[in-house]
Design brief:
Strand content: 5-15%
CATH superfamily of the largest domain: P-loop containing nucleotide triphosphate hydrolases
CATH architecture of the largest domain: 3-Layer(aba) Sandwich
Shape: globular
Order of helices and strands: EHEHHEEHHEEHHHEH
Low-confidence stretches: none
Number of helices: 9
Largest sheet: 5 strands, parallel
Radius of gyration: 17 Å
Distance between the termini: 23 Å
Mean pLDDT: 93
Strand order of the largest sheet: 2-5-1-6-7
Structural class: alpha/beta
CATH topology of the largest domain: Rossmann fold
Number of strands: 7
CATH class of the largest domain: Alpha Beta
Number of domains: 2
């Protein structure tokens, strides 16, 4: 039976870093964020729906202003839910397609920030959570994305807190330290579940 590892966390918790480490060991990694970006590519049905709903504020279907869209949906829960209801089924379909292609792989990693919020944990046989403190998430978002503290907090509050996800995870990977610490934590996780390390 194929192992499907749901890799989740919160914004700026370090999921992508863990995903790259797992990909380096030969495990296919399917990225929900990538599929969401693809869904809003120029002139797709989803980008046309977004342009129709929000108008010139977000540009056009052929050239969406994703930062402007982010400012809207992270400050308005109604609009965020609308966007999620548009995008989540598209992302789910992409996962189904890729999992069909990768049917012979013994392990597949599904990197999904909103794993629980979107109900996609049903796709997974186990859950790995990338964990850090809310303060670290805020600092990383502000540095990485050039956000104000208020903007970063709004994004943080749009997801379940990591503490709520903690109890639902089979493995917890601490990303509160340096890169070497993260590599060791991932190695430990792999060893516990698979019996091998890098």
């Amino acid at each position: 039976m194929q192992r499907r590892i749901g890799l989740t966390g919160g914004i700026a918790s370090g999921k992508s870093s863990v995903g790259r480490l797992l990909e380096a060991r030969g495990w296919p990694v399917l990225d929900a964020d990538r599929y969401a970006r693809e869904a809003l590519s120029p002139n797709t049905p989803a980008s046309e729906a977004v342009a129709k709903r929000f108008g010139a504020t977000v540009g056009s279907a052929s050239d969406l202003d994703r930062k402007a869209l982010g400012r809207i949906v992270f400050s308005d829960s109604v609009e965020r839910r609308w966007l999620e209801e548009l995008i989540h089924p598209i992302v789910r379909k992409r996962f189904d397609q890729e999992l069909d292609v990768l049917g012979s792989e013994p392990v597949v990693v599904l990197m999904i920030p909103l794993l629980f919020e979107a109900g996609l944990d049903s796709l997974c046989s186990e859950i790995w959570l990338v964990n850090c403190t809310p303060e670290q998430q805020l600092a990383r978002m502000m540095q990485r994305d050039g956000l104000s503290k208020a903007e970063a907090q709004a994004r943080l509050q749009s997801q379940w807190p990591l503490a709520r996800k903690h109890d639902r995870a089979d493995q917890v990977i601490d990303n509160g330290g340096e890169l070497n610490d993260l590599v060791s934590a991932v190695n430990h996780c792999v060893q516990l579940s698979h019996g091998t390390t890098w």
